[in-house]
């Protein structure tokens, strides 16, 4: 019996509790002065381009060594909003010449459902300048979920074990189910394998609806998946979020993504996944009503803020941070200062 078949046969043995209940409040934004705990460092640059990406990454790369995977959403065919490949190529050439981009196949049928389809899509989208490792091309493996209530383990692509370090390079945007897609979504969904792990996250056993899990439960399951991966890599992981072309739709919607109306902001990086995703959300909320209306509505209607509160509950990082302005001598700034004077979005 293959490992995938064995995992499917496990049924509920992968789950941590018999009758867990999701938390609440995923539609309620918590202001900075209402949070408590320590502060992590988050770096910020307004420079949207290869130089800005390199600058942001180089602040957080101290523990990236050995065989390095770069977790990137490479997108559906001709998707307009993914991180430009020229930026990624510049980063890899300068700082990560031996690294591989890592991806997994999708749970939905589309341009990346099978490895063969996925390889074709990578070619169409121009991800041909370095190796791309489809982590679940051959098999799966399970990683423990410490402290989870939905899972005791998570199924990921088996090739993940080939890497010593992980660079999580994320296009921050809205998301049809998650409310927003930051580093948490990039790992939690993006490292789970396409047939087993993603099914555990999205679908209740025995349901005909492939996407029956939503709101707070969806956020918690995705976050537990992320925790399995970041616990595996320990200190050898770094996060970079690119706040550009922020449609309310995920990059998995490709050319069908909703038009972008939210202004571009910049690039943020950290070694704390919660601090980074929280900072990006804070920057969105710090925009004017006209600038952030659509994205805030998407986040709150999907109860996406539960991603942040659950990461805090699981001890995955701090929701308070020092925001360092790389464009102005490394001074500390607020979210409001970071988004002051944004220009209306213009499609390139």
Features:
single chain; about 350 residues; alpha/beta; 13 strands; about 30% helix; about 20% strand
What does this structure look like?
By secondary structure, this protein is of the alpha/beta class. The protein is built from eleven helices and 13 strands. The chain is 31% helix and 18% strand. The strands form three sheets. Strands 4-3-2-7-10-11-1-12-13 form a nine-stranded mixed β-sheet, sandwiched between helices. Strands 5-6 form a two-stranded antiparallel ribbon. Helix 7 (215-233) packs across helix 10 (306-313). It starts with a helix and ends in a 10-residue tail after the last helix.
Number of β-strand runs: 13
Helix and strand run: HEHEHEHEEEEEEHHHEEHHHEEH
Query: What fraction strand?
Result: 15-25%
- The gross shape turns out to be globular
Major β-sheet profile: 9 strands, mixed
Structure annotation, total helices: 11
- Helix and strand composition category: alpha/beta
Helical proportion? 25-40%
| Spatial ordering of strands, largest sheet | 4-3-2-7-10-11-1-12-13
Distance between the termini: 50 Å
Rg from C-alpha positions? 19 Å
Q: What does the average pLDDT come to?
A: 94
Low-confidence stretches: 1-13
């Amino acid at each position: 019996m293959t490992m995938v078949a064995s995992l499917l046969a496990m049924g509920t043995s992968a789950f941590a509790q018999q009758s867990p209940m999701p938390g609440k409040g995923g539609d309620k934004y918590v202001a900075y002065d209402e949070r408590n705990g320590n502060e992590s460092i988050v770096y910020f640059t307004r420079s949207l381009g290869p130089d800005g990406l390199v600058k942001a990454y180089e602040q957080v790369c101290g523990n990236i060594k050995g065989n390095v995977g770069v977790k990137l959403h490479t997108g559906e065919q001709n998707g307009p909003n993914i991180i430009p490949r020229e930026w990624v190529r510049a980063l890899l050439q300068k700082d990560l010449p031996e690294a591989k981009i890592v991806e997994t196949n999708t749970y939905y049928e589309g341009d990346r459902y099978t490895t063969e389809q996925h390889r074709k899509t990578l070619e169409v989208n121009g991800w041909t300048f370095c190796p791309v490792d489809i982590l679940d091309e051959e098999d799966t493996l399970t990683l423990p979920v410490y402290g989870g209530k939905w899972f005791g383990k998570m199924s990921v692509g088996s090739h993940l074990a080939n890497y010593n370090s992980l660079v999580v390079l994320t296009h921050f945007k809205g998301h049809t189910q998650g409310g927003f897609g930051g580093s948490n979504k990039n790992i939690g969904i993006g490292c789970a394998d396409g047939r087993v792990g993603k099914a555990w996250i999205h679908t209740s056993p025995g349901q005909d609806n492939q996407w029956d899990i939503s709101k707070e439960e969806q956020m918690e399951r995705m976050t537990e998946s992320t925790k399995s991966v970041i616990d595996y890599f320990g200190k050898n992981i770094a996060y970079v979020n690119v706040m550009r072309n922020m449609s309310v739709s995920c990059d998995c919607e490709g050319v069908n993504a909703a038009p972008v109306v939210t202004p571009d902001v910049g690039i943020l990086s950290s070694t704390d996944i919660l601090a980074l995703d929280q900072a990006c959300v804070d920057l969105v909320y710090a925009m004017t009503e006209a600038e952030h209306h659509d994205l805030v509505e998407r986040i709150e209607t999907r109860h996406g803020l539960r991603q942040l509160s659950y990461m805090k509950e699981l001890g995955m990082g701090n929701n308070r941070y020092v925001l360092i302005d790389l464009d102005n001598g490394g001074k500390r700034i607020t979210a409001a200062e970071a988004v002051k004077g944004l220009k209306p979005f213009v499609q390139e």
